[in-house]
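Table S2 (text version). Query chain:
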Amino acid sequence: MANAIRALTMDAVQAANSGHPGAPLGMADMAVALWGSHLKHNPTNPNWLDRDRFVLSNGHASMLLYSVLHLTGYKLPMAELKKFRQLHSKTPGHPEVDVTPGVETTTGPLGQGITNAVGMALAEKLLAQEFNRDDLDVVNHHTFTFMGDGCLMEGISHEAAALAGAWKLNKLIALYDDNGISIDGQVAPWFIDNTALRFQAYGWNVLGPIDGHDAELVADTIAQAKLSTDKPTLIICKTAIGKGSPNRANTSKAHGEPFGDAEIALTREALNWPHKPFTIPKDVVAAWDGKVAGAAAEKAWNDKFAAYKTAHPELAKELVRRMKGDLPKNFNQVAVDTAVAAHTKADTVASRKASQLALESFTAALPEMLGGSADLTGSNLTNTKCTPNLRFDDVTGASNGGRHINYGVREFGMAAIMNGVALHGGFIPYGGTFLTFSDYSRNAIRMAALMKLRVVHVFTHDSIGLGEDGPTHQSIEHAASLRLIPNLDVWRPGDTAETAVAWAVALQNKNKPTALLLSRQNINYAPKSGMGDISKGAYVLAEPTEVGMKKKMQAVIIATGSEVQLALKAQEILATRKIAVRVVSMPSNTTFDKQSVEYKISVLPAGVPRIAVEMGVSEGWWKYGCAAVVGIDTFGESAPAPVLFDLFGFTPVNVADTVEKVLRK
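Corresponding structure-token output:
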């Protein structure tokens, strides 16, 4: 069974003339142990609710996973293995969720897979405690992950493993492929960690080292790991990279290049595998086939869930809704009520506080919202009255039912754990930090966009407006850089109503993540005649008539966030100079860019000069045909916010003067 994986891997990598054969050959026996004896899954229904989750954290070993999925009976025919790494195949270079049946998450950037697995295990634990009743444990599955040296070298693995231990995720089992080789060779000179002690310090159960090529031993060790009641488990498996290859095994050359026909022939001989490329003997096919066992496992669960529906019909309906990712039926009304309340009260608050006000409403209506902050709760304001801090009992490991996570100073870990929670289903995760620290989270944000996950990032302290903390904390390029990530919705709302709408849109973004960029400083409410167009990303906030000008508009000021107030005050100043301008609030460029041409022209009419105002780099605004941008293309300074606004020209007078200069030209 293991040699079938090895042969398919060599053949596919050779056919593609590209790939990573070493790790699949080394981990093949581990795969036999897991899939052959433990993994609860159904190849004919890859997404049934109570399946075990498997994450290949060292995603370059993708042919291991593709081989197993093919062999166990998923809709991944041999033709797809022959198209490994080719355009539009179901076997891309690294595993991609929603591309290949049976793949639970997109992996490749090392360390994020194990972190996704932590999020999945957390979601399982919280759902189980919330929904299971008596002996009807309808949420009861494990999360397994394979990972290598590279995953453990990446710092994110420290963030994730520490939290897994703190959360007592006893149904998380990680198998470490300890082969001692990476791209640069033997890792001993630069990777000297005592991994076992490291994970014990995190509060993990550590088993091994064991012989990773003894499938029966690995299976027995997994069985032992399943007995843990209060700790996640790390199983250290000693393996040989490129196992079976006479000249490549235990060398870095096995890692990331095809073996070549000659070495493949030698390896086939060494493994006693005389079969032609992409050919699997019938007895091996039969040994791997997981369809019968999978159908039986799902049927057993279906019978249990039928009894659960009879005993607890409302809970069953709620669990199904949440796992589907559907919002409650009253969501639209909740969204409208939240926005109308913000409009009616017209509070002058920082948009971070406006976010908390909106969250009070949404978290009360959506029990699936699972919040958190990277040690900045009091600044991000991500907590609400109905989301107490999540805690776990030291003895039982049970949670207190809290819905706000203290992630600690772990921005990257938080972002990737939220991805795992979203992938598992049942929750809508959101988490907060300062906007400038989105740099720490960036690759996980990108992965969420790539995987089309509903995850919400709350980024506060969004500009030089945070003041005295200085340039290390002041965001300059961050809004522009986040807007460049495909499929990431970015909102920088300018008052309480815009913030409420931004949250409503984020929660409805079922297939994309959202970044909310929020101010530290207070923002006056911007009077508006209606709110219907806010959700389109940009809208006409104030026509010249708002300041007594009856003449045709001569310019358009586009502003976001706290700078909308500058635009409105500049409009008043320009009116005294007999210059008529329209003010457009653009809380979301990414949303506005997707509107119809007709709507865009109605907001930004052709032939009228445009001036953008945002406390960030000017890059990105020129695509709107702006004649000028009041921005900041240098780093900030440490000083009170009002001093910085004067220094960098974020004043109503400077905005008005800029408009006038444009018109003179």
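Notes on Table S2: The mean pLDDT is 98. Residues 121 and 143 are 6 Å apart (CA to CA).
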